[in-house]
Amino acid sequence: MKYYSLEELNNDIIKCEKCPRLVKYRIEVAGKNPKFKNDNYWSKPVPGFGNPVARIVIIGLAPAAHGGNRTGRVFTGDESASNLMKALYEVGLTNQPTSTNKNDGLIVKNLYITAALKCAPPNNLPLKNELKNCSVYLDAELKLLKNAKVYIALGRIAWESLLSSFRRVFNIEINDKKFTHGKCIKIQLHDNTKYIIASYHPSPRNMRTKLLTHEMLVNIFRKAISYSETHEQN
Questions:
Q1: What contacts 182, CB < 8 A, 6 or more positions away?
Q2: How far is CA 212 from the centre of its chain?
Q3: Per residue in 160-214, pLDDT tens?
Q4: Which pLDDT tens digit goes with each residue over 134-143?
Q5: Would you tell me which CATH number, out of the four given (1.20.120.450, 3.40.470.10, 3.40.50.2000, 3.40.720.10), belongs to the domain 6-228?
Q6: What ranges do the domains of the chain cover?
Q7: CA gap 63, 117 in Å, rounded
Q8: Among the residues of 94-179, which ranges form H helices?
Q9: Which of 95, 132, 196, 197 lies at 20 to 30 Å from 156 by C-alpha?
Q10: What is the spatial distance between Cα 58 and Cα 70, in angstroms, rounded to a whole number?
C-alpha cells in the first residue's frame, strides 16, 4: 500500500493486528509492573513521532512493554527513554531532557523517532516473521521522510532492519552489514548523500555496564548533526 502522509501511515499502524503473539502480549503485560499497575495502558502498536521534514531519523528496536506500550509514544516513560532524551537534549535536538508521557511538552527538533517493530515483544526479542510483517511500515516511513539525511540505528536488530529497508526503498545493496558502535555508512544516491550510523541501544543494561555511556551517545548525535548539515550532491 502506498501512503501519502505520515498521519495516514500512523493511523494504519495503530490498527495493526498482523502478529497474534504481539497482540496478545501488548495487552497481557498491561499493569504487570507494580510501579504502573493503576495506569491506563495504550496496549496498541506505537507509531513514530517527530518532525515530518526532519533531517535526522532515529530507529529503535521496539516500544518498551512499560514504556511506549504504556504511554503510546516510543521512547517514553521508561529508563531507555530517559537515557536517550538526556543525550538528545544536550546536543539541542529536544526542548527538554525527559520523555514521560504524550502530554509532557516534549518537542523534537529536526528529528523523527521510530522503531523497527511497532509492538512491544516479549523479552524484547521479536521473531523474524514479526519484523518482516512490520517492515512495510519502516519502508513507508523512509519513503515519507523525504528530507532525511542521517539515520541512526539503536542496536543490532534496528541496524539490520534499517539496512534491509534501505535495500528495498532505495535499491541499495550494502555489503558491510556488521554492527559495530559508531560505524557510519555513506550512501550516494543519484540526487543526494545519506548516512547510516550504528549505536548501541541506550538500554538500562547497556548504560549500567558502560557498554554505552552518556558521552558515547552524545558523540553519536553530534556526528549525526554534523552530517545532516552537509550539502553534498552528485
A1: 197, 198, 199, 216, 219, 220
A2: 17
A3: 999 999 999 999 888 889 999 999 999 998 878 999 999 999 999 999 999 999 9
A4: 999 999 999 9
A5: 3.40.470.10
A6: 6-228
A7: 8
A8: 128-144, 156-170
A9: 95
A10: 20
